[in-house]
Specification:
409 residues, alpha/beta, 2 domains, 6-stranded parallel β-sheet, 4-stranded mixed β-sheet, 12 strands, globular
Length: 409
C-alpha cells in the first residue's frame, strides 16, 4: 500500500479515469487530490505551492477531499495552447533498455522503440470515447520540426529506431503530415514509426501514403468501430466506410501495413448491425488489412454513452461488475460484460471471438503464405505486423499461465 509506505507523501492521481471519476477515485483510494485533464501546468503549480507552503485548494483543474470528508471538484483549467513549450519526457529517469527487453510495444515490433505524441486531443465527439471529457474537442498539433527534433534526440541518445505514436488522431490535416514526413526525409533519419492507436482515413490518399512510407511509416490503423451506418450515426462516429477502404488500398499499395478497430455490443447494436460489422471485417481482411482489434463495448467513465446508461438505470453502481468490465473488454479469452439488452454476456463473448476468427480465416485463406510468415516470426524479436506481435503476446501469456498452474499443482 503506497499510503502505508509513504504516510506523509502527497498522493496525486491523473489521467482518463481520474478525470472521469474524480469523486469515486477520492472515495475509494487514500489520495490527496486528482488532477483533471492535462496535468503538466497543474502539477507544476501544485508543487510550487507545496514547496512554498502555500494553499493549493483553489487551483483550477483539481479535485480533493475536504476535511469533513466531502469532495470538492474545482472548475477545469483551460487547455494548454503552446504544447511545443512543454518539455520532453525525462526518459533518462527510466530504464529504457529494460522496457525494450520486455518487447511489448503497442504496434508491431520493429526494433528499439519509444512512445511519442505529435498531437493532442481529437476534434470529434464519439459517444463511447473519453476524449471529449478528458481533452475537449480541440485538436492541437505540435510543430513538425519539434517532433522530429525529439525523435532525433532519442535516436542518438538511446539508439531508438522505432517510434510508436500514441496520438488519439494524428492525421487530421494533410499539410501537417506532409511537412512531418518531409522533415524526416530531409534529415536522413533511418527510423520507422507507427500509429497503432488509429487515425483518420480522410487525410490519406496515395500521395500522402507514399510520403509516409518514404519517411519510415511501417503500420497504422483505422478505427471504423462498426460496419453499420445506423450505429455509426448513433455513436457519432464520423467515418465514411468507402473512403476508409480506398485510403487503406492506397496505404497498402505504398507498402504500409494497415490495421482496423471494431467494437461489438454497443447499446444500439442488433443482430443485423453485427452482421454488417462482420461484412466490413471480411472486406478488411480481403483487401489486405494486416490485423483486427475487435473488442466488446465498454462504457468508459463519464462518456456520453456511460451517462445515457446511467440515466436508463443500466449502470446503477460503480461496483466490481462494472469496474472489471473496464479491464476485460480487450481480453480475448475473458467473458465480456454486455450492456446491450439483445446480447447476454456469453453471447457477446462469442460474437467477439467469432469476428476475430472470421477476419483471420479470410486473411490467411486469401494468402496462405501469411500463415507461414507468422509461424516463422513467432520466436524472433521483430514482428512484421501487429498480428504477429499479438500472437506472440498470446503465446507468452498462455505459457506464463501454464507455468503458474504447474507451480501451484
Amino acid at each position: 500500500d503506497i499510503r502505508q509506505a509513504f504516510p506523509r507523501a502527497l498522493l496525486v492521481l491523473g489521467g482518463e479515469h481520474g478525470t472521469g471519476f474524480p469523486e469515486f477515485s477520492l472515495q475509494q483510494a487514500p489520495l490527496d487530490l486528482v488532477i483533471l485533464g492535462e496535468g503538466e501546468e497543474i502539477v507544476v503549480d501544485l508543487l510550487d505551492r507545496v514547496d512554498r507552503g502555500d494553499p493549493w485548494e483553489d487551483i483550477p483543474g483539481v479535485a480533493f477531499r475536504r476535511n469533513e470528508g466531502s469532495v470538492q471538484v474545482n472548475p477545469r483549467r483551460s487547455r494548454i495552447r503552446e504544447i511545443d513549450a512543454i518539455p520532453w519526457p525525462a526518459w533518462d529517469l527510466f530504464d529504457i533498455d529494460q522496457y525494450n527487453e520486455v518487447n511489448q510495444p503497442h504496434g508491431a515490433s520493429q526494433g528499439k522503440f519509444m512512445p511519442m505524441l505529435a498531437t493532442r486531443g481529437c476534434p470529434f465527439s464519439c459517444t463511447f470515447c473519453t476524449s471529449p471529457h478528458m481533452w475537449t474537442t480541440r485538436w492541437v498539433p505540435r510543430n513538425p520540426q519539434s517532433v522530429v527534433d525529439e525523435m532525433e534526440h532519442y535516436h542518438r541518445q538511446y539508439g531508438t529506431t522505432d517510434f510508436q505514436f500514441e496520438d488519439l488522431t494524428a492525421i487530421v490535416r494533410k499539410d501537417w503530415i506532409r511537412d512531418f514526413c518531409d522533415e524526416i526525409v530531409a534529415r536522413g533519419l533511418e527510423i520507422t514509426f507507427q500509429l497503432p492507436s488509429g487515425t483518420r482515413s480522410e487525410g490519406i490518399d496515395y500521395e500522402v501514403a507514399r510520403k509516409l512510407k518514404a519517411a519510415g511509416c511501417h503500420e497504422f490503423a483505422f478505427a471504423p468501430e462498426s460496419g453499420d451506418p445506423r450505429v455509426l450515426q448513433a455513436i457519432k462516429k464520423k467515418v465514411h466506410l468507402p473512403t476508409m477502404f480506398e485510403s487503406a488500398r492506397s496505404a497498402l499499395r505504398a507498402g504500409i501495413n494497415v490495421g482496423c478497430f471494431f467494437i461489438i455490443g454497443f447499446p444500439e447494436d442488433d443482430y443485423r448491425s453485427v452482421l454488417r460489422t462482420y461484412r466490413a471485417i471480411v472486406r478488411c481482411a480481403w483487401i489486405g488489412f494486416t490485423n483486427v482489434n475487435l473488442n466488446a463495448y465498454s462504457p468508459q467513465p463519464n462518456t456520453e454513452s456511460f451517462q445515457e446508461l446511467q440515466r436508463q438505470g443500466v449502470i446503477r453502481d460503480l461496483d466490481d461488475d462494472y469496474l472489471m468490465s473496464l479491464f476485460t473488454f480487450q481480453d480475448f479469452g475473458a467473458k465480456k460484460k454486455s450492456y446491450n439488452p439483445r446480447f447476454g454476456d456469453w453471447e457477446l463473448s462469442f460474437l467477439v471471438v467469432f469476428g476475430v476468427v472470421l477476419f483471420y480465416s479470410v486473411y490467411f485463406v486469401r494468402k496462405p503464405r501469411r500463415l507461414a510468415q507468422l509461424v516463422a516470426e513467432l520466436f524472433g524479436r521483430s514482428s512484421s505486423n501487429k498480428s504477429t506481435k499479438m500472437a506472440k503476446s498470446f503465446l507468452k501469456d498462455a505459457f506464463t499461465l501454464m507455468k503458474n498452474k504447474l507451480k501451484r499443482a
